[in-house]
Structures are given as structure tokens and as C-alpha cells.
Amino acid sequence: MKEILVVEDEGIIRQGLKVLLEQVIGGFQVVEAKSGEEGISMVHQHMPHLIITDIRMGSMDGLTFTSKVRQVSEEVPIIILSGHSDFEYARTALRYGITDYLLKPINRIELSETISRIFKEPTIEMTETSKQFQRILQYIDDHLSHEITLKHIAEYVYLNPQYVGHLFKSELDQTFTEYITEVRLKRAKKLLKDTTLKVYEVARLSGYKSPKHFMTIFKQEIGMTPVQFRKLS
């Protein structure tokens, strides 16, 4: 189980994140620190898989805390939380090597999406495909919760959309649409099994704007509704 260190001086927010990460999103163990100083002490004792820290805290703010973490590890992902008034301040945190920043109040879908992106699992074995096609698969994996078209991919890799479509047939023996449906449903099944997110939230994180359309596709491809699948998982 992956461990997440939450550094936040407000107890209510700290506890809220713990419930969200352990019970709603699921699959994580949360370790709490009430200050940047306490967080640094914990980092020296044991490096977590991910750190989430508030940007505004007492004697040590989130940026100072992050700079001290980076003296210990340049690899551990760090998410900074900030209020709207700290937006520009939070952007400066990028130079400190943070992975992402989120605005308060925390949107659980956005948080779940960010963490999924950090701990993403490759959709297929990347060493089995050409380097050019690897970039395409990585793009899909990174943008799965958004609209993805052949045109979007073609612009990203500077290729003709029709040629990109042919690559799916030659590399995977699947059409672009078949592959997108497969990976979207794979993510949906994982979210239904491993989290308590509502079906419409699972739909959105899997790239479906319409929950109704998602439920139709899911039942058509999986043979049961998302709710039925969750109960049997």
C-alpha cells in the first residue's frame, strides 16, 4: 500500500484528506504532520510515496518545506495545496520541483485524477511497441479523462490523423476507437473496484462526459452495469 504524507496545520483539513485518500479514493495509507518541521522530521525517518502539503503554514511554509524535502530526495512527488489568493505564489513552487498544485477547497475528482496520473500504470507493455507509438500511448494515458481524438494525437506527434489511425491497426491490431474504449473501461473497472467514488465521478475520470453514455457502453462491453460490477468486485 502506498504511503502519503499530508503536511497541514489545520486539523480539519488534515482529517478530511485522510478520509478522502484512505476511504473514498482508497488504496493509500496517510501519515499526518501538523507542521513543516514535523514533516521534515518524518521525511528523514521514512520517505513516503507522495507528499501533499499546504502552502501557508506557521513557522515553515510549504515552499520552504518543499526545498528542504528536495535536499533529501529529488524524486518524491509533491502536491501543493493553496487558496485562490495564493495562486501566483503557488505557481512559483514549480521551480522547487513540485509535481502539481491544487486549489482549495479540494475537489476530490481533481485530486483522484492527479494521484492517478502520478501513480499511473502503463496501459500496455511499452517495450512491445515502436518509440513513435509509445509517445501516442503515453499521450492517451496522460489525457484519458479528457476528450481524445485522432486529430489531437496527430497534432501532438506531428503526423497525419489517418496515419495515426493506421498505426493502431499495425501496432495493436485494433482500431483507435476500440483501443480508447478498452483503456477507458479498464480505468473505470479499477476505480469501481478500488474506490467509493460515485458512478458519475468514475465516468468523468474515465473520459465520459455523459454518465448515461458511460453506463450504456459499460453494460454493452462488460455485460453488467457499473453498480453490478462494483458489487461483484
UniProtKB/TrEMBL annotation:
A Gene Ontology molecular function term of the record: sequence-specific DNA binding
UniProt xrefs under InterPro entries: CheY-like_superfamily, Homeodomain-like_sf, HTH_AraC, HTH_AraC-typ_CS, Sig_transdc_resp-reg_receiver, Tscrpt_reg_AraC-type_HTH
Listed Gene3D superfamilies: 3.40.50.2300, Homeodomain-like (1.10.10.60)
PROSITE patterns named among the record's database cross-references: HTH_ARAC_FAMILY_1, HTH_ARAC_FAMILY_2, RESPONSE_REGULATORY
Domain HTH araC/xylS-type: 134-232
One GO term (biological process): phosphorelay signal transduction system
UniProt modified residues of type 4-aspartylphosphate: 54
Domain Response regulatory: 3-119
Keywords attached to this entry: DNA-binding, Phosphoprotein, Transcription, Transcription regulation
Protein name: Response regulator
Organism: Fredinandcohnia quinoae
